[in-house]
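Course exercise 7: structure representation. Students receive a sequence record and must write out the corresponding structure in token form. The form below is the worked example handed out in class, using DMT family transporter (106 residues). Read each field label carefully; the graders check that inputs and outputs are placed in the correct fields and that the protein name is recorded exactly as given.

STUDENT ID: A-19
EXERCISE PROTEIN: DMT family transporter
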Amino acid sequence: MTWIYLFLAGIFEVVWSSTMKLSNGFSHLGWTILTFIGMAISFALLSLSLKNLPLSLAYPIWTGVGAVGSIIIGVVFFGDKLNLLTWFFIILLIIGIIGIKLTSGH
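STUDENT ANSWER:
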């Protein structure tokens, strides 16, 4: 269950970062409320995962899942343009996340 909590925490990081973009500097109430709800859920799930995982493992995976997910949302829904070299480094980030998980012993 710990890894599910951590993965879902990363997904909710994507939710709150995306709704923060949609809130337009917290000027749209509905998106602002969803941003804070997403933050609360993300932090709560991260907290649950930290009961059984070391911080040095959980935090980088949480931020990595959130970063990669936010990149994908930015490209697909917000029209962000990334060059080939940027995609190369995103792939390295994904490899790093997988590597941390595989070598953690948890």
